[in-house]
Structure formats: C-alpha cells, structure tokens
Amino acid sequence: MMTDDIYRIDKARARASFGRAAETYDAAAILQKQVRTEMLSRLDLVKLNPKVILDAGCGTGMASHALQKRYEKSQVVSLDFAYPMLQKTRQICTNIGFGSGFLRQLKSLLGGAKQNLLCADIEALPLASASTGLIWSNLAIQWCNDLDAALQEFHRVLQPEGLLMFSTFGPDTLRELRIATSAASGNEYTSVSRFIDMHDIGDALVRAGFSAPVLDVERFTLTYDDVKSVMRDLKSIGAHNATDGRARGLLGRGFFEKLEQSYEQFRIGGKLPATFEVVYGHAWRGQDKPRFDDGVSPVTFKPRNK
C-alpha cells in the first residue's frame, strides 16, 4: 500500500512514546476503554472457543485480562512493540487476574492460565502460521506503515475459521487539531497521522484473503478546557506525532499561541472538542463465508443509528 513519505510512522519514536506512557496510560485512556467495552460486547454475538488468542497491540493488557476471563481455557498472547507496556501488562494481569500468594501458586500447579508476553511488531508477527483462533486488536493498527502487510500477517497466523476483531481510527480523528496545527505552521509540518478510510480498510481485508468483512464507524467527541489539556491527554497515552513530516525541534511560544487561537474556532459551549472516528471491523479466515465465482468477496458496511 502506497503512502506519502511525510506520513510514514517513525516506529522508533512511536515505540519510545508508548514506552514512556506505560505508567500514565490507563488513567488517560478513556476512549480506549469505551472502545474495548464495545468490542467485548460484540463477542457476545459470536460462538467461539479459541485455543490461542492474540491481543495485537495489547498496551497495558486490560483487554488481555478480559479475554482471559472470558475464555478461561484459552492461551492469551499479549503482543506490543513497546516493552514497558508489556511490563505493565505483566503487573496488571498478575494483580487483577491471579491474586497473590497461595492462590497464584495453586493456579500455576493446576495448569491454569499463564501470561504470554511478546515484544514484536504487528507487521511482522513471530508466530507460526495457523496458530491462533482469535486475533483481537484495539486501536493499534493505525500505527502500522503497511496495512496490507499487517492484515496479511493476521490472516497467516489465524487458523481456518478463525476470527479477526479489531478497531482503528478513521480520517476524521483529531480533525480539529490537524486544522489548527496546519494553520499555525502554514502547512509546513504534519501534525496528525493520516488515518485510513473504512472503505479502504474493507478493500485491504479482502486483498489479505479474509471472507466477507463487516465494518462500521462511530464518532466520539472528548471535550477539554484548553489546548494544553488536549495535548496532555495525547502525551499520557503515548500518542505523540510520530510521522516523518513532523517538526524536528521546538516550535516556540509563538507557534503554540497561533495553535491556541486557531483551535478556538471549534469551541462549543465553553469547551474545545477533540473528535475521534473509530472504525470497528471483524472478518473470518476460511471458506465458511460466501465468495462469488469471480473471486470477489463482499464487504458489509453497517450504518450506526446513534
């Protein structure tokens, strides 16, 4: 998949940003929690008994814990490219998942669930082909430079009739910040990643070999008192600008004053909005979904009534 070089993600910078945010992530990740809850509710509609689950882009491991609780006999693999996030996952899942002392030892002796932590990139999964029954990825694939490569890797490691369930950000995400920053910098630098449209994601799923993908979109608006609060929240979850076209040095007080002034055009009811467009998707690997004789697979886009 071709992308403009200026929007290419600097993986080293992104990895470092998420690593630094490991301790502050959960307190600030309000949207991530809402999306995780919605995704978990969708699993209620699916009959699935996966032996192995991959949490791709696990962050601090809250979804890994929820998936382990839901599928008690499954082996959950928590994968992230930021090692401090995996350290946090180990801590959180131990504290809320296994208890302490005698109870943890007893579960270990009885062959209960254990943590499986893997530091790796979604675009190059170090897992065997057809080794997982469910791949879960909550707001992570937007940090990939090659969506096709990531989805092909998901397809490769899924077992036949395995399920991929994911969420990611769409093009309207942080539109206010993008517009305000572009005005303040004179379009000299990139300020926000270029997120992929839902229809393009559906096409990429079909190219990767998935059957009859289903996608829909939901918009969230978080509100803030000022621009500094917007930036503080993004920093707390590690969502720094990691594009190659970003400014490489401090832009100074003058730039930030222009940014504040430009962002004011969006103030409503005394609050500054930050829009997030969330794309939900799921697709199956295998022949259990219909394919047409000409090799075309249908993609379903579900409207939201909210």
Our estimate of the beta-strand percent is: 15-25%
Number of β-strand runs: 8
Unreliable parts: 98-112, 288-294
Which overall shape is indicated by the principal axes computed on the Cα atoms?
globular
CATH topology: Rossmann fold
- Biggest β-sheet strands, sense, barrel: 8 strands, mixed
What's the structural domain tally? 1
**Can you give the helix content as a percent range?**
25-40%
Query: What average pLDDT do the residues reach?
Result: 85
Task: State the name of the first-level CATH class.
Answer: Alpha Beta
**Strand arrangement, major sheet:** 3-2-1-4-5-7-6-8
How far is the N terminus from the C terminus? 32 Å
CATH superfamily: Vaccinia Virus protein VP39
**Helix-strand pattern:** HHHEHEHHEEHEHHEHHEE
User: So, CATH architecture?
Assistant: 3-Layer(aba) Sandwich
Any idea what the radius of gyration is?
Answer: 20 Å
Name the assembly state.
Answer: single chain
Indicate the structural class: alpha/beta
Number of helices: 11
Please characterize this protein's 3D structure:
The chain is an alpha/beta fold and 306 residues long. The chain has one domain (5-172, 194-220, 278-302): Rossmann fold, CATH 3.40.50. It has helices spanning 11-20, 25-28, 30-43, 62-70, 83-98, 102-109, 147-157, 175-185, 198-208, 227-236, 252-263, and strands at residues 52-56, 75-80, 116-119, 132-138, 158-169, 211-224, 272-284, 300-302. The chain has an 8-stranded mixed beta sheet, sandwiched between helices. Strand 1 (52-56), helix 4 (62-70) and strand 2 (75-80) form a beta-alpha-beta unit. Helix 4 (62-70) crosses helix 5 (83-98). The longest helix is centred in the N-terminal third of the chain and has 16 residues, at 83-98. The chain is globular. Mean pLDDT is 85; it is low at 98-112 and 288-294.
